[in-house]
Automatic annotation (TrEMBL):
It comes from Oryza punctata. GO terms for biological process: gravitropism. This is Uncharacterized protein. The lineage of its organism: Eukaryota, Viridiplantae, Streptophyta, Embryophyta, Tracheophyta. GO terms for cellular component: nucleus.
Length: 83
C-alpha cells in the first residue's frame, strides 16, 4: 500500500513537471513565431523599399536587384566598400 502511494505521488510529480515543460515550450514557440513574423515583415518592408528605389533610379525589374545593391547602401556599409 505504501509503495503504491509513493508510486502514485511520483507519477503525479512527473505529470506536473511535464505540464510545466509543455507550458514553457508553448510560450517559447509563441515567442519564436512572433520573432519570425517580425523578421518576415521586415524583409517585406525592405523589398518594397528596394523596389521603390529601383524605380526612382529607372532600373528595369531584371537589373533592379544587382544595380540596387550597388546603388542603395547605408553610409556604414559604403565605408567598407570605399575606405
Amino acid at each position: 500500500m505504501r509503495q503504491a502511494s509513493a508510486h502514485r505521488a511520483y507519477a503525479e510529480r512527473v505529470r506536473e513537471m511535464a505540464r510545466v515543460e509543455l507550458e514553457l515550450a508553448e510560450k517559447e514557440f509563441a515567442r519564436a513565431r512572433m520573432i519570425w513574423e517580425r523578421a518576415r515583415e521586415e524583409v517585406e518592408r525592405v523589398e518594397r523599399m528596394k523596389e521603390i528605389a529601383a524605380r526612382r533610379l529607372g532600373i528595369g525589374p531584371a537589373a533592379a536587384s544587382a544595380a540596387a545593391a550597388l546603388e542603395i547602401t547605408c553610409h556604414a556599409c559604403m565605408q567598407r566598400f570605399h575606405p
